[in-house]
Specification:
alpha+beta, 4 domains, 6-stranded antiparallel barrel, 5-stranded antiparallel beta sheet, 15% helix, 28% strand
Length: 495
């Protein structure tokens, strides 16, 4: 959630039931935001406890899959109705798989090797041999005035006020063979990790996970509707720690010691976000912002190396900015990072040397809500940026590899883990106390935390296959019947 927030305070482990305002007190954005999160947590937990991990009402169960044939090509239709995934309400008005409200599967190439595999299969005249798992991917996305201008009140001059959180559902497909291959790769990675893990709780957990993956591979051969979706779309399991640089003691009384104190001049909400994902041997990277990545503006066009924007406020020469639009955001793909050489009026001039090879500052009217977002990482003697992002190096007991952000804030990534593009951590920093809001080290051990998001929720919808060239659909949806029934009450009185 890249909003201009002071901090995110909701924590389900606190067991808070409500936020109560007091008279004459200062109200911050974090208070009503936490109230909304408390209510959503309660409602979604209740729905999940009653319905289960996924299901829809019997009389209006949505997302039914139907396939029709026309002109040597088949068409997959997603039915209208409601469906709950982990308690989150998803509503469909009915659409084509190839043209969904918040997702457009990549068009297949002429040879069928690239693009969406299911679309390519539907377009073939000889449809046989492949089996597809169709599933629902549900997550939440922040909507600002850039994505929906109707948020702003024109009667007041169109100020940027509140933002919105939107439930995004996307129907996707993958071949069962790909799922099996992915599970096998994960199993091999864990088995390799076990070779370098000593006896203890970590080893026990890894062995249990390996056993689960081996069982899942066996189950997949029977094509169950309970296929483990999280095995190929799992949230990033990489962990990060943050601290204030302890510095070195300075004996000179005229010099302020750079001890473990936040030295920034303003309160900030730092955001560390994965740019390129993958395992450590795949060279993942991250970007960071002192404003939670909230400094963004509409990208209106390009004039040479100049980006034409709605407003250049809060942008400066030397900034690294991300060029993105709705299509990239909805696919979970990061935008291109480029460096600004000059800022004048509503023009952001890009340093041509910062544009990656085989890329350009392409802008077309077909882009959906294109935007320019500012990030704050910089190159220095200790950090060499790769395509504008900071490479991730793993920390060890002998070499912690703390990475400096600014104003004495440092971060460190755990030795193992798979990084997923878009996953993020938040670090509130406060001037009054000179501290950051992060769990303190205990017994000399650094406190690592999993990413705060983006959290994806999954539900299987069906299994499509073409035995003997004829379509076969196994529906995997679950439905529930309403418990309450209304009966006409008798109004007759006894004589």
């Amino acid at each position: 959630m890249k909003g201009d927030f002071s901090r995110i305070t909701f924590d389900p482990s606190n067991r808070f039931s409500s936020v109560l305002l007091q008279q004459g007190r200062v109200t911050l954005d974090a208070d009503p935001n936490e109230q909304a999160s408390i209510l959503l947590h309660y409602l979604r937990t209740l729905a999940k406890d009653l319905i289960g991990p996924y299901g829809g009402p019997e009389d209006n169960c949505g997302f039914e899959l139907t396939v029709t044939n026309a002109a040597n090509a088949a068409k997959l239709t997603i039915g209208a109705g409601r469906y709950y995934v982990d308690g989150i309400l998803c509503e469909s008005e009915g659409c084509d798989y190839a043209n969904q409200p918040d997702y457009t599967p990549p068009a297949p190439s002429s040879d069928g090797k690239d693009g969406d595999a299911l679309l390519a299969h539907l377009q073939r005249s000889n449809q046989s041999g492949q089996t597809f798992l169709v599933y629902l991917d549900v997550w939440e996305r922040l909507i600002t005035w850039i994505e929906d201008d109707r948020i702003r009140e024109v009667a007041l001059g169109g100020p940027d006020t509140c933002v919105r959180s939107k439930v995004v559902w996307q129907v996707k497909a993958t071949t069962v063979d790909d799922v099996v291959a992915t599970v096998r790769r994960q199993l091999a990675a864990i088995e390799e990790q076990l070779k370098n893990t000593q006896e203890g709780p970590e080893q026990v957990a890894l062995k249990a996970r390996a056993k689960d993956l081996a069982r899942e591979i066996t189950q997949l051969s029977h094509l169950p509707c309970t296929v483990p979706l999280d095995t190929f779309s799992a949230p990033g399991q990489a962990q990060m720690a943050a601290r204030l640089d302890p510095g070195q003691e300075i004996q000179d009384p005229c010099v302020i010691s750079p001890s473990a104190v936040y030295r920034g001049a303003e309160n900030q909400l730092y955001r560390v976000e994965i740019q390129l994902g993958g395992a450590l041997n795949e060279r993942p990277s991250f970007k960071w912002s002192r404003d939670n990545g909230s400094v963004a503006t509409r990208w209106l066009g390009t004039d040479g190396n100049d980006l034409l924007v709605t407003s250049a406020r809060k942008f400066a020469a030397g900034n690294w900015v991300e060029l993105c639009d709705d299509s990239l955001d909805l696919q979970g793909v990061p935008g291109m990072l480029v460096k600004l050489a000059k800022v004048q009026n509503d023009r952001l001039t890009v340093d041509p040397d910062s544009i990656p090879k085989d890329h350009s500052l392409a802008w077309t009217p077909t882009l959906s809500n294109p935007k320019v977002r500012r990030w704050d990482q910089t190159e220095n003697d200790n950090i060499t940026l790769v395509d504008g992002a900071v490479p991730i190096v793993k920390g060890t007991a002998t070499d912690p590899s703390w990475i400096d952000l600014e104003d004495s804030i440092q971060i460190q990534f755990a030795a193992d883990g798979i990084y997923r593009s878009g996953d993020y951590w938040l670090i509130p920093a406060r001037v009054a106390t000179g501290t950051i809001d992060w769990p303190a080290s205990t017994d000399g051990k650094t406190q690592f935390k999993l990413p705060m998001g983006i959290t994806h929720h999954y539900a299987p919808l069906g299994i499509l296959s073409w035995p003997d060239g004829h379509i076969s659909i196994r529906q995997c949806r679950c439905s529930f019947r309403q418990n309450a029934t209304c009966k006409e009450a008798s109004t007759k009185k006894k004589a």
